[in-house]
Design a protein that fits this description.
By secondary structure, this protein is mainly α. It has one domain. The protein is 82% helix and 0% strand. The C terminus is likely disordered.
């Protein structure tokens, strides 16, 4: 077990949460910070928030595919990129929708709205990645195939 997995196992033990969730939270925080920095930079450069999210999503997808696949779900299979991209496209539109709602009805600060929507979308991303992209085959199917 490598150092990262040992660290996550210790945290999971202390706070009584699954190790997979701890790994996702830690890697997800790095991925979210990375993507948010791209978003914030694009907003700072004067891009419309939809383009800023698009830029953040495209660059963040490349970064996240490798980190989530290898560190969280322990599956670095590059053939999963198409499912992963589909999940990120869905998350992009969800992020845009949440941003529109937040900006129109809750707060007008694009930076805070972007941070809040990114956190919410990351939870959806975890579920979709776990159950759709990096899903482990069921035991019965595994036994049938082997």
């Amino acid at each position: 077990m490598d150092l990262f997995q040992q660290f996550c196992a210790e945290i999971a033990h202390w706070i009584h949460l699954p190790q997979l969730f701890i790994r996702f939270a830690l890697v997800g925080c790095v991925n979210t910070i990375f993507a948010y920095c791209i978003y914030a930079l694009a907003i700072f450069m004067g891009l419309h928030y939809t383009l800023a999210v698009l830029m953040s999503t495209i660059i963040g997808t490349c970064f996240s595919f490798k980190t989530l696949g290898a560190l969280v779900f322990e599956n670095p299979d590059n053939r999963l990129i198409f499912k992963f991209v589909a999940v990120y496209i869905l998350c992009y539109f969800l992020n845009i929708g949440l941003l529109r709602i937040l900006i129109q009805f809750v707060l007008s600060n694009l930076y805070v709205a972007g941070l809040l929507s990114s956190c919410l979308v990351s939870l959806v991303s975890f579920c979709l990645n776990k159950w759709v992209v990096f899903r482990k085959p069921s035991k019965t199917r595994e036994n049938f195939i082997s």
